[in-house]
Each structure stands twice: as structure tokens, then as C-alpha cells.
Records
---
Amino acid sequence: MCGIIGYTGTASAVDVLIEGLATLEYRGYDSAGVAVVTGNGDPRVRVVKRAGKLANLREMLEGTWLDGTTGVGHTRWATHGEPSDRNSHPHQDADGDLAIIHNGIFENFAELRAGLAADGHEFASDTDTEVIAHLIGRSYDDAGVGGDGADGAVALAGAVRTALRRVEGAFAIAVVDRRSPDTIVASRREAPLVLGHLDGASLLSSDVAGLIRYTRDVEALLDDQVAILTPEGITVTDLDGNTTEGHRYTVDWDIDVAEKQGYPHFMLKEIHEQPGALHETLLGRTRDGRIVLDEQRLDDDDFRHLDKVYVVACGTSYHAGMVAKYALEHWARVPVEVEIASEFRYRDPILTQHTLVVAISQSGETADTLAAAAHARAQRARVVAISNVVGSSLAREADAVLYTRAGPEIAVASTKAFTTQILALELLALFLAQLRRAMFPDEWRDQLRRMETLPDLMEQVFGQETAIRQLAASVAHASYVMFIGRQVGLPIALEGALKLKEISYLHAEGFPAGEMKHGPIALIEQGGPVVALATAGHVRGKIVSNIAEVKARGAMVVAIATEGDTEIKAHADHVIYVPDVHELLYPMLTVVPLQLLAYFIATELGCDVDQPRNLAKTVTVE
Ligand code: AGP
């Protein structure tokens, strides 16, 4: 997610903007920029922007005098267009009269861009944001109104409303214009935007952390509301121009808590961000009734004639790959092998130009996964990357990319990246099924529709957070925790064990439930906790038998089951329910209680949840 700051008042805008962007650095970003309205007599919008960290922008600003008191600033987390100076925000309209910053994804930007280009518009970047800048600029000119000062502000607000009525997707935007030098016009749909009220100035930010040093009197803008900010105050309207108001409240957080938006740790914040992240992963994934990848340097025939798929990854990403195997084989009817990336290239795998290697990496910088992908390409196999970082090394080296769009994941323990990886992989499976005609169109459209319900269904799981926290307190001092599952429940058993061990340092292990009697059942002690993935599906009966096996030896069983399954209560000591979904979609729901369980056990034990000992967020060495 990008960071947004806006200020209009009496102070130097650039100073306020840079300070605000610095408080948003924790969100992760790949470039930064500011736009300031300068020159009292003859106002101009001056844009200064750079790829890289804020220090690069500061360096550029040292040689640039920006004397305005109104401006906007932005830290970019790329979704469309690689990280670069030209793709950095702010972006301007055709005449350079205005500048816009944006967080989110305009789903229909391609058709809007084509229409503007047909009218002679030329673009300096690959971004969806620049398209909207041109759209607002043209709406302003078409309206034929506006002048300087108040008239300019009315014209700008009208132009923004006209343009936003045409866009689809999620956005938070802020616009400055030389024709209304002390005004900022802002709006949002699904992406957060908060306004700051104070005497003699007005501010806005993508989250409270950017405002809190100036004011605690804030107003959350609501979807499809438009805010007009001046030093005298803020007016809010709906998209038709009718006056309304956002949600106004007083912030009682300190800056540290504000960065986590009120959560005690980034990990818990990111667990709760998952429904929104899944929604972002799905945005704009179909065009003209077809599923589309982000960047594809392959033609469809490359995918049609595949005869084998390898999935390579490490850690949590490997567990996502295990789920992908079931979806790729079931939907696309192609044989799949899932491999630990650090093992893959050393076993001399058989690869041809009809082999597809799917490399999964949140960071896109994991050394073993990069090496596996490079080995595959050297053997003429095709490589598709599933990554959360636009322009990452893996994304650049792959033949095609599908971005998870989970937004920056700060906690070392991966959560929202994992569930969005699964969703992206299942989209890839549908994409291949479509190309290989392995599914009828109505079948993969049904699956897409089911996927679109996942964000709301996942929200329901959080209704059991208190019960999970209480369960964690009773398990936190166990000498071990065992996780068992079958089929798509197995990767989640392994992921639940990894989450627990990496943040609580407890001995935790996942097993195929059918394997218990071949050795692991010897570990069962009286009262030893066993978490069983027991949702509805063709192996539920088998799992219930495995639960009986471990119960008979004294285990305390926690079952993750499908809502409505009351029968499971006869077998398990505790039951955590998830909504009923298609069997291949369960992993995105069943992992959430295990993420929460790991989190609450680790906090119960006083562990450093966000930065666990011995671990790094990205492992850039073999
Ligand atoms: C996940 O909780 C771990 N932090 C770790 O296993 C991680 O998934 C692994 O290092 C792979 O990272 P990547 O997805 O960035 O390649």
C-alpha cells in the first residue's frame, strides 16, 4: 500500500510532507515524491520525485527551492509499472496544471488510457494514476469553468467528481492544481484516507500515523466522498456534490501504535488485513471474460503445450505451493511436483521447453528461489513468478508474473502474503485450465465467483478471535504442539506448525494425518495438544478417525471444522469453525485460526512477535 500525505496551511508544505512521509516509511515502498504549488504571483505545480528511499528525494530537494504552503507527498508500493523515477508519484495532467497522488488500483485504466490516447493524450509513465490525472485535467477543461481561487477550487472538485464517476477499482487520491493554489481535493473508495483538522491548516494521510504529530482531531473519509481542503477548513461532499461528512473522531493512540493502526504488532495487523488483501488480489483479474496475468512475456501457446509443472519456493511460500498442486492438477489437469527451492537445482530435475516452473516468493529476493528459477530458465523451462513485490529480482527474471498485491508485509512471520499467494496460484490454475480447455467456461467462472466471496467469509472467522486467544493461553506452556491434516489440510498443518515455531520458539510439527500411526503417534502425551484440519470434504471421515487415534492416546484435540458440523464436537475437545466453501478454497480460511493461535501463544510467552530471534524477513543468502 502507498503512503499519502497532504498539507495546506501557512507552514512550508515540503517540510510537512517530508516529515509525514517519514512516519509512513514503515509501510515499505520503492519510490517517493512531492508536488507543491509554488509562486504566489503566478502559481505553478512543482513535482519532485525519485525511485528509491526517502533519502534520495531529500537529496533532490536540497537543490530545489519549493516555497509553497500547499502540497501532497507520496511513497509508492508499485502495483502497475516497475519502480522507477518516471513511475513515481505524483503524476500530472497533459498541461501540467495539476498533480495527483494515488493509493490503490484503477481496474479500468487500460480502456480509459486507450480513449485518452485516441484523443491525442501522451503518457510519461506506465501507471494507472497518470491516466486519471489526464482524465481529471480533461474534465476540468471540458467543464469550461474555473478560474483562480474559490472558482478554481469549485472547478477542481467538479472535475475530480466527474472523473471518479468513470473509474472502477480501489483508490485514495489527492490532487493539487495551480488554479486553486491553496486547495487540495481528495477522495477514496476502499483504500483508506484520513483528514486532519486544525486551526489555520488542513491535512490528509493514508493513515493516522501521518497526522498524529499535528492533530488528533481527525475525520475518516468514507467511500465515494470528496474532500476539499483549504487552510480555513475542510468541506466533504458525495460524488454528486451534496455536502456530507466523514467519520470524525479524536485519536488516542501514540505514534508507535498508530503505525500499527491500533494493533499491538504488525503481525496481528497483517492477519486482519487479509480479507482486504484477498480483495486486492482479485481486482482486475478478468478482462473480456478471460483471466489475465499481470505481466506476461509468453504467448498462450507456451502455456497450452505444457506437460509438467514444478512449483519451487521456501518456507511459507512452499506451503502455498503445496496447495497449488491440488488446484493445478484438479482444474488444469497438468502433473505437478512441489519442491523446496534449495533442493531443486541440486537434484538435476528433468526440464524441457514444455515444463513450467512456478516460483513463489513474497519478497521476490529469496536466494534459493531465485537460483531455482534461474536454473529452470537455463534449462529452457518457462518460469512464472508469484510475488508480492513489483519489480523484484524474481519478477524481473520470470517469463510471466502474477502479483499478490498484499501490500507491504512488515512482520517476519508471513500471513497475508501466504493467503494471497494461494489465491494467486488458484487464479493461475484457472488461467491454465482456461487455456488448456480443461474446464468449461461456466466452471471456472463459478470458481471465480466463489473466490470473490472469500474476503467476507474470512471476516467471519475473526468472530472467534477471543475463543482462540483463550485457547492459546491454555496451550502456551505445552511441551509441543502437533498439527495434522490431509489433502489441502496438510499444507495448512505444516504452515500452522511453522507459524507457531517461528514466533513462539515452541516445538511444533505438522504431519500427514495418515502418517501418525507410522511413527509420530509415539510423541502423544497425556493432554498434548493436537490441531486437526477437519473441514468438510472427501477426507473428513479419515481425519475423524485420526482424531480418534490420538484422542485414544490422551491427546487434547483442537479441530478446525466447517460451520454446522456439530458431529465433530463428539471427537474434539475444542472446535474452531470456518464457513463452508469449495474444498480447494478452504486453506485461505483454515489458516487464519492457526495464525491467530500462533500469535496469541507467542504474546502469552512474551516473545518478540514481529522480529523473532534468528530470523530475517528476506533470506538473500543460500
Ligand atoms: C514465513 O513465515 C517465513 N518468514 C519464511 O518461511 C518465508 O516464507 C520464506 O523465507 C520465503 O520467503 P519469500 O516468500 O520472500 O521467498
---
Amino acid sequence: MATPSTDQPGKVLVTGAAGFLGSHLTDALIAKGYEVVAVDNFITGNRGNLAQLEGNPLFTFIEHDIIEPLPPAITGQHFTKIANLACPASPIDYQEKPLETMRVCAAGVDHLLALARRDGARFTHTSTSEVYGDPLEHPQRETYWGNVNSYGERSCYDEGKRFAEALIFSYRKLFKVNTGVTRIFNTYGPRMRPSDGRVMTNFIKQALAGEPITLFGDGSQTRSFCYVDDQVKGQLAMLESDFEGPVNIGNPGEFTIKQLAEKVIELTHSISKLTTAPLPSDDPKQRQPDIKVARDNLHWEPTINLEVGLQRMIESMKSNKNLA
Ligand code: UDP
């Protein structure tokens, strides 16, 4: 059982803070009274995701690429916690920027771990269900070592994240850094970039436009979708504990991609029909988290089912005029 840390809200460094998940975590930390120093290089993030925090005395923003050594604006401060969410996360983004993806998982994480070591800070890292690759065990427990192609379409992300985990566990062992690793399963919600190419954004955009919904392959592959509010609660629980993980943070509700398409059509009352496109190589056939470790150690489990989360996501995309 992990012991919750007892310190008062302090100063937290959030990297990747202008991204989808990073911005929601930053909001949640500030709502809890933490002072947040938010960092992003806008490789996939968007300053608009943090617009609601401009002028808040608890919030400061520093534009920086953590692949580069950390600047004095960051190293001149003392942090009690560091949450790393910096990394392209959608397949089209990391495939377009494979070197940046691997470097942020290597040099970027190394820089943050050195800072956490110096400050005695709690350090949490967002790893991924992709460390399990195209899994041969189902559902995926943290003890499963994975089935990853080391040079395929997804390897920059999968192996990058696996390297980051190895680096983190080495810092923990060598220098006793208080580290925690979460493995995130497909998370969705407002502020996802509409053009990020992921299945949620693609399907909702297509349904709202009445265009054909593109199933890659026959749509029989599965994913388990976690609503962002649940995901952020899991991330906060991890940041506020001393649990090392790795721990799966995801919603065990598993759906085929075809079922997701049908649900999106139903909830948007769309005239869209299903169409198929080639399945990308190395696309995992099934994915579902076993969340016993999160339940036992973080007292965390998701509460928002797919139908409720989808409705919120659809409303947010409807009100977003720019779906490019
Ligand atoms: N997918 C799809 N149509 C799309 C986008 C994605 O059928 O327009 C499929 C994709 O092949 C994968 C699943 O949906 O099997 C989830 O894809 P996504 O890119 O959202 O994330 P992944 O879990 O693959 O990283």
C-alpha cells in the first residue's frame, strides 16, 4: 500500500502542460492550491489550452523544449513535485516526429530526473499501454513485458517510452529518486487536437460532418477508452503518493472500433455510413487494462463510462468552430 505524501501544496513542474492531458492536469493542480510552473515547446501542444489560467497567481508558463538542458528559469526554482507529460502521443504525430519523440523520452526524461534528484522532488512520468505493444496477454497487467516491434511504425514511441521507464527505474535504484510511472490507456475528452488523427477525434469529426466513418481494417480491433477527468484523477493520485508503479491508468470497458463508430453515429444522430481503409502496420489487435494495481495502491478507478464521456466530448467538439 502506497503512503500518501503529507506535504502541503508546493511548487509543481508540469512538462507538456499545453497538451491535452497536461493542460487538464495543470488545471486540477491549480484548483487544489498548488503553484504550477508549466512548460511546453508546442510541438503538439497549444497555448490556448492554458488560456483559462493566464493571470492566475499560481500559474507561470515557460516555453522550453526539455530535450535541451533546462534553463535557469527552471533550474533556479525548487520543486516539490515534477509531472512529465511531454511527448507527442498520437500515432500520426510521433510518426511524423520520431527523433523528437525518442529524444524527449531519453534526454528530456534524463533532465527532469536530474532535477528531481537535486530537489528531492516526487517525479511522475506518463508512460503508455503501448509498452505492451500488440499484446499477447489480455487484459494487460503491469507484470506483462509486452510484444513490441523494435523498428516498426510505432517503435519510436513504444521503445522511447520503454527506455524512459528503464531510465526512471535506474535513477530510483541508484539515487533513490521518488519516482512513479503510470501507463496510460487511450484517453479522450475536450482539448484533444481535432486533427490529431486519433480514432475519437476522427470519428466524431466525420459523424458531425455526415462523412463516411473510416474503420481501419475491419474494425474488430479493440481499445478501452478512459475519459480525461478520470485519467487526471489517476495522475493526481499518483503524484500525491509515493507509489513507484508501473501502474495502468485506464478504463477497463473494452470496445471494438466498429462498436465505437456505431456509438458515435447513434449519439450524434449522424447520417454517416461506415467505410474501411487499410489497417496500419503493427496496429495492436486488442487492448484492455487490468486496473487492480491502481485500485489497491491508489484507490483509483474510473467512474465515467463511454456513453457519458462520448456525449461530453461530442458537445465540446460541436462548440469548437475550428475542427481542422
Ligand atoms: N482507427 C480507425 N480509424 C481512424 C483512426 C484510427 O479505425 O480514423 C483505429 C486504429 O487503427 C486503431 C484504433 O482506431 O486500431 C485506435 O487508434 P488511435 O490512433 O486512436 O490510437 P492507438 O490506440 O492506435 O494508439
